[in-house]
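agent> Task received from the user: take the single chain below, predict its 3D structure, and emit C-alpha cells. No templates, no multimer pairing.
agent> Plan: (1) validate residues, (2) run structure prediction, (3) serialize to C-alpha cells, (4) report one or two observations.
agent> Step 1 OK, no nonstandard residues flagged.
tool_call: predict_structure(input=
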Amino acid sequence: METQELHRGRLIDHIQLVVRDLPASRRFYEAIFDALKIPIGGDGSDYFWVDELFISSIDSQAAAGKLTGRHHLAFQAADHAMVKAFHDAGLAAGGKDNGGPGERPYHPGYFAAFLLDPDGNNIEAVYHGEAKRSAPSVKITF
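)
tool_result: status=success, residues=142
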C-alpha cells in the first residue's frame, strides 16, 4: 500500500451550521465533543463554537434567517474506543444512528461511526488507524 499523508489546518478556516433548536444541538454536540475530548470554545445566547465549527440559531445575526441545510462533517478520533464513545454519547444526547462503529471500505484501518444530529446532518467520528502526526494540532496566535 502506498503511504498516505494527511494535512490538517490548510483548507478550512471555519464552518457554520444554522440549526432549528439550539439547545437540542448544544446537548448533542457537547456530548459528542466530550467523547472526542474537545472542549466547547465559547458561546453566546444564540451560538456556540468548537474549534473551527460555529453553530448558531436561525435567529442569530450570523444566520441571516436561513438554515444551512444538510451537511456531512467528520471528526477525528484517537482510537476505536473513542469512535464507540462518540456513537454512544451522540445516541444518548438525541442523535440518531446512521451507521454504527465499525470498519469501512474507504481504506484499510478506516474505523468510523455515523450519527444524524437534531437537524439531520450526518456527523461522523473516524479513526484512520495507526499514524504518526507531525504535531497534535496547529496553533495560531494573534
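agent> Step 4: summary for the user.
The longest strand covers residues 111-116.
agent> Done.
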